[in-house]
């Protein structure tokens, strides 16, 4: 069994100085490949550093919409994205959820913040076009703006080169994904959110990639024992659950989702 965790934040502080042990535990569980996406300039640079230190750990660079209200250096971001170590631009997108815990004071999802997110999102899509890199889309409670932006800024080269990370269980998102050949990322919440499990059941296997979103979204079976941090080793739990709800063998699921991940990130 060879699994690919297509979205794990090994580059976050929670895993600082523990990456080697975390990766080793994951490898023992059958996870061979890892993609660490950036959320800002610092974590994007850390992702690159990890990819240079560890075999089969790959990097993505991008600014998460949560950070759209802070000052960012687009020139510095472009420098990271064009780095050969960076396989994708991400995670980028829109997030209209009102977070209760955030480092930003007076955090409000108002009209100006939405405009800032949209502007940042489009700029990063254009960088992906410029450097012909796949994109990892983040979307939370923002479908009404996200889909029109994608349709207006789409590039033919994005086919099979984009993914809805931790895709919301929404048929309109799935319809878009089918038409534009976008992959669907499935995480640990599929094990405890019935609406998500019903949604993933109807997503064609050829569209699925597996992800843990470590350190978040710990799968249900171990959530009560150790809710945080989630680790890439738990990808096996997600794989087993998805195989069961789709009524296929773990081997079949593993083979197809890993092949999908390789196609998404243009790996051989």
How would the blueprint of this fold be written?
Layout (H helix, E strand, L loop, with lengths): L2 E3 L13 H10 L2 E6 L4 H13 L3 E5 L12 H8 L4 E10 L15 H21 L3 E6 L2 H10 L9 E3 L6 H10 L2 E4 L7 H9 L5 E3 L9 H4 L11 H11 L4 H15 L4
Parallel strand pairs: 1-2, 2-3, 3-4, 4-5, 5-6, 6-7, 7-8
Structure description:
The chain has helices at 19-28, 41-53, 74-81, 111-131, 143-152, 171-180, 194-202, 220-223, 235-245, 250-264, and strands spanning 3-5, 31-36, 57-61, 86-95, 135-140, 162-164, 183-186, 208-210. It is α/β, with parallel strands linked by helices and 268 residues long. The protein has a single domain, classed as Metal-dependent hydrolases (TIM Barrel). The chain has an 8-stranded parallel sheet with strand order 1-2-3-4-5-6-7-8. Helix 9 crosses helix 10. It is globular, with a radius of gyration of 17 Å. The model has no long low-confidence stretch (mean pLDDT 96).
What is the count of structural domains?
Answer: 1
Q: Low-confidence stretches at least 5 residues in length (pLDDT < 50)?
A: none
- Total helix count? 10
- What is the CATH-assigned architecture? Alpha-Beta Barrel
CATH class: Alpha Beta
Cα radius of gyration in angstroms: 17 Å
* Helix percentage range: 40-55%
- Specify the structural class: alpha/beta
- The portion of residues forming beta strands comes to 5-15%
> CATH homologous superfamily?
Metal-dependent hydrolases
Strand order of the largest sheet: 1-2-3-4-5-6-7-8
Calculate the terminal CA-CA distance, rounded to whole Å. 18 Å
